[in-house]
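Posted in: Structural Biology > Protein-Ligand Complexes

Title: Requesting predicted complex, flavin-adenine dinucleotide in pocket

I'd be grateful if someone could produce the 3D structure tokens for the following input. Sequence and ligand are given below.
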Amino acid sequence: MKVTIVGSGFAGVKAALELSKDPHMDIHVITDKPDFQYYPSLYSSATGHSHLESWVPLGEIFADRSNIQVTIDSIVGIDAKKKEAIGLSETRYHYDTLLIAVGTVTTYFGIPGLDQYSYGIKSADQIRQLKERIYRDLAEHKQLDKNYVVIGGGPTGVELASALGTYLLRLARYHGIRSRHVNIRLIEAAPRLLPRSHPKISQRVQRRLENLGVQIEVGCVVEKETAQSVIAGGRPIASHTVIWTSGVMNNPLFSAHPEVFKLAKNGRVVVDEHLMAADHIYVLGDNAATPYCGLAQTALHDAKFVAKNLIRKRKRQPLQTYAAVLPASSIPVGPGWAAFEWKFIRLYGWPGAVLRRVADFIGYTDILPIGQAIRPWHAGTIYERDYFAPSVSQSPERHRKKSS
Ligand SMILES: Cc1cc2nc3c(=O)[nH]c(=O)nc-3n(C[C@H](O)[C@H](O)[C@H](O)COP(=O)(O)OP(=O)(O)OC[C@H]3O[C@@H](n4cnc5c(N)ncnc54)[C@H](O)[C@@H]3O)c2cc1C
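-- Reply #1 --
Done. Output follows.
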């Protein structure tokens, strides 16, 4: 049986690995990047920890799987009548069964200036741009920016804001620069941080962040960003290092094909009880309108479910029905501290941090054999100097973002 998978994130990689256990499966993964990106640790790689915890080459993951073939291409169209996925390279990939898991894209909700001036931490390129900004301040002005503004009080914003202060102080020391006081502000439009978590988690996390010196502004709407400042809650905040962690929307691949995909109110793809969106097409992970979409564990769950059903289909066994599973969440807030939540269980401090480390290890073993999973997991404890940083003499012309 031939299965074509688009995307090599949590859902795409896991589906390929599960399907490959059946030697009768012939799997073709088409993806726009040669590696798997472990999103949960991006904030950590962006603040000085090893990049090895966030990027794992696909060659390493699929090394011993002879029935998986990988093609690097970006899928830009679907011709459901001809059963073809169309690549940016203009190659048309015929499919028998298609699994799509292309993840989300960043949106700025039309707020003026954000796309031009703000930084992100969703990819290696974005992290490199942020580091270039910070290193330029150090090299050219011999000082750090006065205000670092993190927009978005969801898990990524909280994790980043909690790690940024320590990272900046270490960098300044390393470059022999006497650091002036650096303000780190975390801005959230909702009335509390972590709006998807229990209010008690929000309270404890806010207190912890304040203890770490982070200034928090909730119920504060960002209106505009310029080269010198960001305007939030009607006030300008002088800063040229604004990091946008808010706002994701479904991949535009789906809205471009209304003849194939039906979208739910939240923009995700409507799927049936087998995660099918159209004839021969399954949609998984962040793309599918399931109750807990938007989380890595849901993407893994979807992948295991679809792979198992496809193997059952090949064996002509009855198919199973999808059941959503509530994932646990563990949000690190500074060293040795995390807030853990699952159903009615809430833990804070080092027990939460231990559970987060365990969850990360399990996350890596989902895509790598245990022996190999130790490497990226252990990399999370290593500071590196500094994989994404430009050399100090690098030309400022390379900076795509604002050059104030
Ligand atoms: C910064 C950050 C931190 C996060 N932290 C957590 C966390 O701590 N815990 C948690 O549970 N979840 C977390 N998430 C969410 C989690 O990462 C996602 O839910 C998960 O990655 C979804 O998996 P996916 O396979 O659906 O999509 P992704 O993992 O996004 O994978 C999409 C894949 O498709 C590829 N692709 C994209 N477009 C195309 C195209 N047109 N053609 C071919 N290939 C394409 C991409 O390169 C990628 O390989 C975080 C997300 C972010 C952004």
